[in-house]
Amino acid sequence: AGCDVHLAVTGDNAVGVYSPQTTVLAAEAFLPVDRVVAPVGLSNLPGYPALFVGRDRALAGLDAVLGEAGSVVVQAVHGLGGVGKSTLAARWAADHRPQFTPLWWITADSTAALDAGLAGLAVALDPVAGTVLSGEALRDRAVAWLGCHAGWLVVLDNVTAPADVAWVVARCRTGRFLITSRRADGWHQVTTSSPIRLDVLDQDDAVALLVGVLTHDPTRSVVTDGAEVVCREVGRLPLAIEQVGAYCVQTGTSPAGYLELLARYPAQLVATVADGADPDRSVARVWRVTLDHLAHIDPLTGVVLRILAWWAPSGVSRQLLTGIASPLELNLALGRLAAYSMITLDGDRIVVHPLVQAVSRIPDEQDPHRQSADIERARTQAVRSLADQLPDDPLDVAGWPVWRNVLPHVDALRRQTHADLDTVPAARLYNQAGVFSDNQGDLTAAVAYLRRAVSAYERVLGPHHPSTLGSYNNLAGAYRAADDLARAIPLLEQTFTDTHRVLGADHPDTFSLCNNLAYLYEAAGDLTRAIPLYEQTLADCNRVLGSDRPQTLASRSNLAGAYQAAGDLARAIPLLEQTFTDTHRVLGADHPDTLTSRNNLASGYEAAGDLTRAIPLYEQTLADRNRVLGPDHPQTLASHNNLASAYRAVGDLGRAIQLHEQNLANTHRVLGSDHPDTLASCNNLAYVYERAGDLALAIPLYEQVLADRIRVLGPDHPHTLLSRNNLAYAYRVAGDLARAIPLYEQTLADRNRVLGPDHPETFTSRNNLAYAYRVAGDLARAISLYEQTLTDAHHILGPDHPLSRTIHRNLTMACGESD
What we know:
The chain has 819 residues and is mostly helical. The chain is built from 35 helices and eight strands. The protein has a five-stranded parallel β-sheet with strand order 2-3-4-1-5, with helices on both faces. Helix 3 packs across helix 4 (135-147) and helix 27 runs antiparallel to helix 28.
């Protein structure tokens, strides 16, 4: 009739197109919808990437639901933008193409796009209709056709909200809808089947995808080193992996090289796509669409997401966000972010994809959701929120569960912010985290936190501010715990000098630093410097604070401990007795310091060999700590250990073993398998097994402790060296000198290198190695080593030190055997 008709071409990739121009055909010129038969193989299914990996579970889920017979079936797939929802839908549809006619793909991210897609289906089914009907009428004709036919599949891709497509589904009685959306909730309005949540790829599949992109072109020489690390870094997000691979192929960059660039130029790389690719499919652009929508509904969603960007990607408690809005407003914002798959809500916990976090904290003045000022405000709030949740005293066991929950987020904040941006609140946060980590035995983390705190305090407040000096003290303490005395002692010496000058000789902080410096000298085995410093501190505390102040009592206890370490029990025990009496009077019978003082007095009695007085004190201390502090307090666990050791010393091995076994189980449960106290408890149990003659139990336990200490504390930590010494001793007792002597030699070499030749533990190693030579019948080497060790011990420790006397006795016996 002279009209321009655009006919649909059937086949695998046919697309129906309708002409918007005016036509003169009457409505009678085309068939009613119930009589229109779809051309065989009618489909406009888009292609999907040739590299399709994994997703077996999701594909099986689609099989289970869409393969059902009967009425209309609807299955929604939701997930974060870039996670591969459309690719999954295209792959499943392609695999099942013969089962459906037509198989029609509609981009449904807007009402206009949905209408156009349905109108295109109407024209493809009946080209003549496209010459007569308006777009709206074509849309309705397509829905009417779906409502009265079976055997079709319609993919509604990238649906914004369930309500946008609910009216289409409601008018259909048979057929299949496969829907993809970033929206996670509201699908009960459309379908009775549960939506499938599509997550990121498994690590193996992610690596396979990246390697596949890198090696797809056989004419290119590629390097795949670093693929596993890159996949973890981008959170195994398919879109990001494909873009990384395309960038690497185009630029000749290896995955390892890409990582270096990502660290230096994160803003540019998250916005980059390879030449020829759709610029709107960059990681940053894909999520901006969702954020635009959310910001229009609820501006708080952007604020929350930018704060979450600074913390760990999982395990975020809602409690951390308290204070940024009312509970109702906060719940709505979190719910909306979860509804659009920007976060996942797991009970009280929040999970965020690490790449979402990275994009959210990278400024881009062209992106309204990533303005520099907004990101800076979010970082400040992230610091404040963490600080508000943490207990004041990181050494208070009652607050440890909170610390353990929050610490991963403090660590993420530290790693994701530049030190030059740290404020005083951030410095305070890192300082407290360092003290807690030091107490928990995580010395690597402790040093990292405390260095960061020191850096911030120095830059903002200056090197002589009391907060800066306090952070120096804490860092020196962490160095001491790691036995890095070469750094700890000079740092604390300078801090003591500065504190003395800034705060004055009689300030309590000056006394504390003097005490701590003495403790470092004692740890280094330099009692000739430690004891006078302890004595000076005690005298100053008595003069300025008074004899009954807790700091004075603690100073007296420390001096007594130094006397005990020097073997001067004649001065140590009276001081311990006086300290216990005064602490009991001043602080009361149940004060933790009183219980510690009683424990120390028991230790003094035990050192003097007076176990008849030591054991009742240990027993009473354990009972009181159980009652006052609770059975799981670290000091209670320490009391279990001390009492067990006293039972061992008195020969009551049955009770010692039982108590050590119980203590190991408790420390493992309370402190964790890698805490230094747990490892010490394991070592002590091995020791009592050894004393009981059960080397079959002792040696494997010693070997385990040594392996764990090397892994947790490092090969040069004093506790690791002690474990190596103990294992060598057990081998020697078992008669295995072939393994004992090399281990003793290694321990001596390491203690010489790490602790220095004049440290008491180095003298102990020399004595033990000499004894092993003596047992092996090599008396010439044994005597020579004894003589040199005795000379050095006399010079450093004095002839009356217990270790000097032990070495003298061993030398005498070796000389007698040589005669």
